[in-house]
Each structure stands twice: as structure tokens, then as C-alpha cells.
Amino acid sequence: MSMPNPIDRTRSARGGDFPAAGQRNAMALKRMQGPVRRRFAMGRIAVAIGLALAGGMAVPAYAETFTIDAKIDRVTVYPDRALVRRAADQTIPAGEHALVFANLPASMDENSLQFNASAKEGGLQILHVSSEPEFQNASQSAGIANIATQIKELERQIVAMDDQIAIDNNQISFIKQYQSGHSAPVKDAPLLSSEAFVGLMSFTQDKLLGAMQTRRAHISEKDQLQARLELLRQRQEQAQGNANESRKVVVSVRLARPASIESLLSYVIDGAGWQPVYDARYDSGKGTLSLNYFGQVSQNTSEDWSGVNLTLSTARPVSGVLLPELEPWRVDVAAPPRPMPMPRAAMRSKSMAAPIMEEAADAASYDVAQAQTQTTNTTFQVPGKQTIKAGGQEQRVPLATLAEPATLSYELVPAEAEAVFATLKLRNSQDFPLLAGTVNAFFDNEFIAAAAIKTIFPKEDLELAMGVDQAISVKRQPLQRFTESTGLTGTGTRHTYEYVTEIRNNRKQPVELVLRDRFPVSGDEKIDVRRLEPSGENIALQGDGRYKQTLTLQAGETRKVALKFSVQYPKNLNVSGLP
Predict the structure, then answer these.
(1) Burial class (CB in 10 A: 0-12, 13-18, 19+), 134
(2) Cβ of 474: how many Cβ atoms within 10 Å?
(3) Phi, psi of 89, deg, nearest 5
(4) CA-based end-to-end distance of the chain
(5) How far from 73 is each of 83, 108, 143, 392, CA to CA, in Å?
(6) Which of 103, 226, 257, 265 is buried most, with the most CB atoms less than 10 Å from its CB?
(7) Is the Cβ–Cβ distance between 157 and 223 less than 8 Å?
(8) Do residues 134 and 102 touch, judged by C-beta distance below 8 A?
(9) Rg (Cα) of the chain, in Å, rounded?
(10) Model pLDDT for residues 464-495, shown as the tens digit of each residue
């Protein structure tokens, strides 16, 4: 029986055979006489067995090694890591063989490694799965090259901004020289008239102010570019540390007959994550709030995710798996304090605030994700194929859209701020929670503010601060105080205080407001505080003197609301806390 020579056969990643010189020699051997062929084959078997025993490995002498070209087809991103799945389809002959998955990230979690395979023809056994480091001499990976390109572009922008700042400085210097040259007296030249002098100063002042504002804007833009450049350089150093190191996974399989194997290799890797971002758009005409739920994904895993099925999960793997152990609570004599350690340098935090874009009149709709809520977490199947490059760039993907009737309320605290603050209340009608994140709020397609929200679970109310409503003006009038003596002998003093808040509704529809203010509270029985205004059923007074007053203003109406009280106490009593 003739034996195939594994050294004389080369297989590609797609399973094809390529003839080689050694293979032609093997074909020539088949034409030799039987005894000669038997002696040649027995010699090869003895050498193979000797090599296997010397290496201490129980692997077949005729096992072939196949390098599998497994592409990333599915990624599940968690808040602080990602589960990557690679898939491949390979034709493998009968026997025991080694399948090698090379060029995997060095930072992959070996404990999370999973391999599964199936053969349409059956007869497949998985014998062993192992992972080992692999050092490469290749040049920069795609992720490092992408970071280097971004660094060069930022450096170019910073140089251009330096040129612009130099132009701003030159312009400011020219205006100052022009101002000085035309205002200073010159020999044999008439003095400027007062009108000409005022006109010159007004003209140069406006030009100088505009040039200084432009320079400040350019300096601020340069500072932002510098911060981004520093962050990218840190990522470049981190990525270059692992540039020449990777891992490979070796899988030993046995096939009873030749078969086409479908392989699935998955692993968890750090350097990836996502966080929720929202766009909240309120339509005052319809009284509805449209809340667009996005997942902001970033990854710096040294490998690109190109055309993958993307899933975002709220779960945190390997976090809080076991019930925490409760230690005994002991009370003892306090030990003397230890010396304070040297303070560590404060780490810079990355702003996750989303960029503010100009809004069109009609907002486009999103192809949202399919949400699945399990017992402990929620997953979002992002529609379509997604491509997220390595390098830490952030990319938004739509998850869900809520369009529900919303209740708009107005509140003001005139003692602290002369402004009316709008708040929207919306019920979360979905079966999944709205995770804590940043909300960009729009009022009738006008950007209002970016705010943070806490996690809102299903059937809970979301209260969203929409910022200051400029259409309702507030003005707090100065304090008025009246002082008079009390008692038959004039031994007492009474101060009467009055504040007036003027509110004007410039909207075309009525608004209901809640005004928050406070009366002083006496801390001694000798101090008598009397509340004069406001009073009535529309006042909700608390025990500490704070109250809420409900007001309804018609379109274009101006209302004056008074806060009036008196404080009486003996003249010989030193009282604190009064204005």
C-alpha cells in the first residue's frame, strides 16, 4: 500500500492542491517495483514515529497543517469589551490534521476562547484546542497605520492654525498702529475734530474687537486639535507596543472521510465598548417628543471590523458573577493616621459629548435595531452590515426611536436665576431600559442643550431638562425694606420685606408655570416671622418655608408676583440671616 508524502503536498487556505517537484517524484515512485516501494515507505514511517516520540506528542505522522483564513463576521460589543466571531469554510481530507488560525490579537482573553465546527458529510471530531503567542516581523497593522494618518492630518491642521493665528496677530498689530498713527498729533498737521476722533475710535474699536475675537476662536480650535493629537499619540504608543506580537489558535481535528468544514472561532477582547447617546426633539405644535436612541461604538483592538453583523449588549461579562461575601463589622480603637501619600497626576478624561450638527427642517428617520430583552440584559441587533475601523474613532448606530406624547412644564426660581426652565416628561413605553447617557435636546428643531440622564427602566417616566425658554422673560425687582418700632415703649423692631418678580409670556399660546421661592423660618421664639404674600390655594408650602406657586399666563400676558413677609424681634437681640 502506497503512502502519500505530506512534505510533497502544499495546500492553500482554500483547500486546493498545488503540484510540486516532490509530488512528481512521488508519482514516479508508484511506478517502482513493490519491494522497493515498501522499503521506502517503511523507512518514512520509522522516521515519523521517531520524531513524534522525541517530541512527546501523540500526533499522527501524516497530519497536515492548514492555515485557515477566517474572516470576522459577527461582533457583540459590551460596554467595556467585545466578543468577536470569525467564520471560515475549508475542505479537509480524511485523517488527523491541525487547523491554524493566525494573526489574532495579542490582547485576546484566552479563557473566553471558543471553537466550534461542523461537517456536512459528518465524521468530524475536535481533539484539541490551544493558543500560543506568535511574533511577526510585519510592518504596522492597519489600525496603527490609520492612527498615523490621523496624527499627520492633525499636525497639518495645527500648522495651518498657527499660520492663521500669526495673521490674526499681524492684523491686531496693524489696527493698533493705525489707531495710534491717526490719533497722535503730527507736526504741521491739523488736529482731528471731536467727531472725527470719535469716529476713528469707534471704527478701530470694532475692528480690533472683531480681530481679537477671531484670534481667541482660532486659539481655542488649536487647543482642541492639540488635545486630540495628544490622545492619538497615546493610542499610537499603546498600539505599537503590541504591533509585532499576535496570537494563533491551533485546533486538532480528525475526519473519517474528506469533508467541507464550517469553522467558528470566537474570543473576547478588550479595547472596545459602546455608550448610549440620545437626540430628543420636541414638537411644540404637536406636543410630541421624538427620542432617537443611538449606540456610540469605538474600538482600538488592532483589527478592523469590516462588513460585520453588529450587536450591542448591555451586559457586563465576568462582572458580579458571585454573591459578595459579607465580612464581620468590628468596632475598635482607631489606629494613628498614616502619612498622606503623594498625589497622583490627574488623568485626563475623554469627552463623550456628541458633536452638534446643524439641523434641517425635516429630520430623517432611522432604520432602528431589533431589541431583545433577556432576564439580566438587553441586546440590540443593528440592521445591515457595519464597518468600524480600529483606532478609537467613534461611530453612531441607531438602536431605537420613541415617539410619544410628552408633558411640557415650566419652572422658575427667580431668587437664583432670572430665567424659565422647561422640562419634558415622557413615559418609557419600550420593553428595554434607556441607559444612562448624554441627551442632545432640540426644541422645534432648535438646539437647546446637552444634558445627562439616569437609567430609565420600562414604564418609568423620563424627565428631560430642555434648558432655558427664551420666549418667557423673568425680571426680579430690587428688594424693598420697611423698618418700624413696635411695642408701647418701642423696644421691638419689625422689618417688612418685599420682592416683586415680573414674568412675561411672549409665546403665542398660554403657559403654566411653577414658581419656586421661600419664606424665612424663625429659629428662636423671640423672632416672629409673618408671611404676607403670596397666599391662597395655589400655594404649596413646606415646613422649611419653601413653597411652589402655580401660575397660568395667557399669550402675551405680563404678571407681577410679590413675595412679602415681616420679621419682628426685640431691639437688643442680635439677629443673623436677614438681608
Answers:
(1) middle
(2) 20
(3) -125, 120
(4) 110
(5) 11, 17, 18, 20
(6) 265
(7) no
(8) yes
(9) 38
(10) 887 788 889 999 987 788 888 887 777 889 99
Residue 298 CB burial class (10 angstroms; 0-12, 13-18, ≥19): buried
In tens, the pLDDT along 168-184 reads 898 888 888 776 766 55
Residues 6+ apart with CB under 8 A from 435: 275, 276, 314, 455
pLDDT at 20: 41
Query: Which DSSP letter does residue 360 get?
Result: P
| Among 61, 123, 125, 98, CA closest to 259 | 123
My answer on whether omega of the bond before 324 falls inside 30° of 0, hence cis, is: no
Confidence of residue 367 (pLDDT cuts 50, 70, 90): low
The single residue listed with the C-alpha cell 473566553 is 112
What is the structure's pLDDT at 371?
A: 64
Looking at residue 113, what DSSP letter applies?
E
Q: Give residue-wise pLDDT tens across range 435-464.
A: 888 888 888 888 877 878 888 888 888 888
Q: How many CB atoms lie within 10 A of CB 501?
A: 21
The grid coordinates of residue 125 equal 471530531
Q: According to the 3-state scheme, what is the secondary structure of 218-280?
A: HHHHHHHHHHHHHHHHHHHHHHHHCCCEEEEEEEEEEECCCEEEEEEEEEEECCEEEEEEEEE
Query: H or E segment at 566?
Result: strand 558-570
CB burial readout 446-470, b (16+ within 10 A) else e = ebbeeeebeebeeeeebebbbbbbe
Q: How far apart are CA 264 and CA 114, in angstroms?
A: 8
Kindly state the percentage of the chain with pLDDT values over 90.
23
Other beta carbons within 10 angstroms of residue 22's beta carbon come to: 14
Q: What is the DSSP letter of 153?
A: H
Contact between residue 565 and residue 545 where contact means Cβ atoms under 8 Å apart: no
Residues 194, 180: Cα–Cα separation, whole Å: 16
Question: What pLDDT shows up at residue 340?
Answer: 55
pLDDT band at residue 205 under the 50/70/90 scheme: confident
pLDDT of res. 459: 87
Cell digits of residue 464 = 428631560
The helix or strand, by DSSP H or E, that contains position 173, with its residue range, turns out to be helix 142-183
In the structure, what pLDDT confidence band is assigned to residue 562 with cuts at 50, 70 and 90?
very high
Residue appearing with cell numbers 501619600: 341
List beta partners, residue 403.
290
The Cα 200–Cα 183 span in angstroms is 8
Query: What single letter denotes the amino acid at residue 39?
Result: R
pLDDT at 560 over 90: yes
- Asked whether residue 47 carries a pLDDT value surpassing 90, the answer given is no
Strand 395-405 to 288-299 pairing: antiparallel
Q: How far apart are CA 137 and CA 133, in angstroms?
A: 13
459's grid cell: 414604564
C-beta separation of 291 from 402 below 8 A:
yes
3-class state of residue 404 by DSSP: strand
Q: Is-contact 271 299, C-beta < 8 A?
A: yes
pLDDT band at 64 (very low <50, low <70, confident <90, very high): confident
Is pLDDT of 90 > 50?
Answer: yes
Distance in angstroms (rounded) separating the CA atoms of residues 20 and 41: 19
